[in-house]
Amino acid sequence: MRVLAAMSGGVDSAVAAARAVEAGHDVVGVHLALSRMPGTLRTGSRGCCTIEDSMDAQRAANALGIPYYVWDFSERFKLDVVDDFVAEYTAGRTPNPCMRCNERIKFAALLEKALALGFDAVCTGHYADIRTDASGRRELHRAAAWAKDQSYVLGVLTAEQLAHAMFPLGATPSKQEVRAEAAARGLSVAAKPDSHDICFIPDGDTRGWLADRLGETPGEIVERDGTVVGEHRGAHGYTIGQRKGLAIGRPAADGKPRFVLEIHPKQNRVVVGPREALEVSELAGSRYTWAGAAPEAPHEEFDCDVQIRAHADPVPAVAVVRDGELVLTPREPLGGVAPGQTAVVYVGTRVLGQCTIDRTVSAVPQPAS
Length: 369
Known about the structure:
- By secondary structure, the chain is α+β, with helices and mostly antiparallel strands.
- The protein folds into three domains: 2-125 and 168-184, Rossmann fold (3-Layer(aba) Sandwich), CATH 3.40.50.620; 216-277, Adenine nucleotide alpha hydrolases-like domains (SH3 type barrels); 279-362, Translation factors (Elongation Factor Tu (Ef-tu), domain 3, Beta Barrel).
- The protein is built from seven helices and 19 strands.
- The protein has helices spanning 11-22, 51-64, 74-90, 97-116, 159-162, 175-184, 206-214; strands at 2-6, 26-33, 68-72, 121-123, 128-132, 138-142, 165-166, 219-223, 228-232, 259-264, 269-273, 280-285, 287-290, 302-307, 315-322, 325-330, 342-347, 350-356, 359-362.
- Strands 5, 6, 12, 13, 14, 15, 16, 17, 18 and 19 form a ten-stranded antiparallel β-sheet that branches.
- Strand 14 (302-307) and strand 15 form a beta hairpin.
- Helix 1 runs parallel beside helix 2 and helix 3 (74-90) packs antiparallel against helix 4 (97-116).
- The N and C termini lie far apart (65 Å).
- It catalyses: S-sulfanyl-L-cysteinyl-[protein] + uridine(34) in tRNA + AH2 + ATP = 2-thiouridine(34) in tRNA + L-cysteinyl-[protein] + A + AMP + diphosphate + H(+).
């Protein structure tokens, strides 16, 4: 097969490309230039898609003896990921930019261009597994090493995208093995630290980054009954479940710590309450997709597990498509679920699908006003 290996400049994508070459595929490496500041330098494990990452990817491609190119996707990345991130926070939601990047850049824009150029598959260094069912249809499954499993951020992939995806690291039992393999192959990225945080906010200061773009507009912090307990500098600087940085001027009447429960951007208001009020009994989203074949009867309730964060534990739930939404009811209430987050649905190790959460139902009744 002709395989396009997406090479981020990290050890995972380099080893994935090496395994594709070793498997006998005709491999071409490509680095996606996503930053609008191509001279940006990397700081330890913070940031990615920098000029240093591009050079690391090229060194790896040279060591593997494969052609290497840099494709400028910075404009598409700004529109589909960065601008979406800002718009979601403006709307009082908590987005996951990694999901949008995988959905719209790595497995939409990149795959579209790869297929147009005659490639059969796109290879990445994600820790996930692709299996084929009895009917020959491809399914997305968790990686062998659950500690490194990245199937959650791939939950947005469709059947068509899975048909052209390749994840050579899916069966690898540990990251240590990948690093050892990179060292044995003479790849200079063998000891390179993993990147973390949001790639376009390398210093990790999301609130400051948003304030620079959206400004600061003071507003009220209120209890669920409407009692004003403090003031904020901009509702977009808060996320559901946040405790630190609330600057509430006086203790709550019940003496319990306060957490962000709701964000109302139109009123520029942040609602806070006790931890137990974060628990939700239902979550739903109209923007849902299936990763491979859809359930046989999605309009009938079925058992599943739901995961709401990349590193969260999956929890048992009941799912159903109703009134244009994928509705998920966890067997036990879930805490800290925010609109804008992604709920990924599993059946066993298989990723069945996902939805962007539009609404939640609180497990704790609203107090009478």
